Amino acid sequence: MKNLKKLKKSDLKTIKGGSAPLGCNNWNPAARCCRVWDAEHQGNPTCPTP
Description:
elongated, 1 helix
């Protein structure tokens, strides 16, 4: 187990949250969904409203 390295907190957030899909203007990394889409992708699903 010598090949393990300590990850920075920012790296963990990137791994956990993932990257925003193309056309997403407001990405929610915790829920992994898009809140607002641009005009071309308006019909895509958004985050459920609480």
